[in-house]
Amino acid sequence: MAIRTAGLTDVGCVRKHNEDSYLAEPGLGLFVVADGLGGHAAGEVASRIVVERMAQFVEETQEKDRTWPLEYDTRLGFDGNRLKAALLLADQAITDDIQRNPERETMGSTVVACLLHESKVTLAHVGDSRAYLLNPDGIQQLTRDHSWVAEQVANGILTPSEARTHPFRNVITQALGSGGDLEVEVQEFELGELDRLLLCSDGLSGMVSDSQIWDIVAQAPDLQAAVEALITTARENGGEDNITAVLIESGREEA
Fold first, then answer.
1. How far, rounded to the nearest angstrom, does the alpha carbon of residue 149 sit from its chain's CA centroid?
2. Are 200 and 110 in contact (CB under 8 A)?
3. Degrees (nearest 5) of the Cα angle 193, 63, 73?
4. Out of 82-91, 111-120, 149-158, 189-198, which region has the weakest mean confidence (pLDDT)?
5. What is the pTM of this model?
6. Where are the alpha helices (DSSP H) in the chain?
7. Taking all residues of the chain, what is their mean pLDDT, rounded to a whole number?
8. Which of 173, 166, 174, 175 is nearest to 206 (CA)?
C-alpha cells in the first residue's frame, strides 16, 4: 500500500507569528499537527518540541524489543502505546524546557497525531486540534475537542452552532505542557481505499465548516490542491488563527 500525503501551514490573517507545527513522515507512518499556545514565539517553541520529540520516539521504537520508558497500557496495541508514549514524552519535554526557561511558563500545545501502517490507523489527540475522516459518503469528526464549549455541547447546554461563535470557544481543557494529568485519547481503525484522513488545527476547523471541508477536498484534483484550497478558504473566512492541514490517504501502489 502507498501512503500519499500533503501538508501546509499558514500564519492566517490576524496573528503575527505562526505557532503551529506539523510533521508528515510517510517513511515512519507518522503525521502530526501541533498548535502552540503561549504567544511571543513561545507557542512556536512548544509545537516544535512536540513534533521533534514525537518523531524521535517513533523512530526509536520501530522495533519492539526495547525498554519501554513509561507504563505500558495493556488496553492498547503496540502502536497505540507508541503514540500515547510519544505524546506524554512530548509533554515532559515541554515541561523540562519551561524549567530551563521560566519566561516560557505559559507555553503549551494541542496535538493530533496518527500512525499509519498499511491501512491501519492509530490516532491520538490532546486539545482541540482535530481529525476528520472524509469519503464519498461525507465527513466525520473523529476526535472530541478537549474544550469548554465541547463540554457544554455534550451536556446539552450549548448547541453546536452556538459553540462555533461562543466567546469561550478557544478555552481548552487539555494541553501538553499544562502541568496536569493528560487525557490522551487513542483510537484504532481501518482506512478504506476511498477514505482520506485530515489532521488540522482549530485555525482551520474554526473558520471552515465541516460541509465546506468535505466539498473542498472532494472537488480538488489532488491532495496538495486540497490543502491549499482549505488554507485559502480559512483565510477568506477571516483567518483569525494560524491554519494547518495535513491530508493523508492510503492506496494501492501505482504500476
1. 19
2. no
3. 80
4. 149-158
5. 0.94
6. 42-60, 78-100, 148-154, 160-165, 202-205, 210-219, 223-236
7. 92
8. 166
- CA distance readout (Å), 35 to 119, 180, 188, 196: 26, 18, 23, 21
Length reported for the chain: 255
Reference 111, options 132, 131, 138; nearest CA is 131
Question: Which pLDDT does position 255 carry in this prediction?
Answer: 43
pLDDT at 144: 94
Which residues, 6 or more positions from 214, have their beta carbon under 8 angstroms from its beta carbon? 134, 138, 139
Q: Domain segments of the chain: what residues?
A: 2-251
Burial 89-100 (b: 16+ CB within 10 A, else e): bbbebbeebbee
Q: What is the DSSP letter of 147?
A: B
Q: In one letter, which amino acid is 131?
A: A
DSSP for 79-123 reads HHHHHHHHHHHHHHHHHHHHHH-GGGTT-EEEEEEEEEETTEEEE
The grid cell for 128 is 482541540
User: In terms of Cα–Cα distance, which of 137, 143, 196 is closest to 4?
Assistant: 196
- What is the per-residue pLDDT across 187-207, written as a single tens digit (0 to 9) for each? 999 999 899 999 999 999 999
Q: Which residues pair with 250 in a beta bridge?
A: 3
- Domain boundaries 2-251, corresponding CATH code: 3.60.40.10
Between CA 96 and CA 107 the distance in angstroms is 12
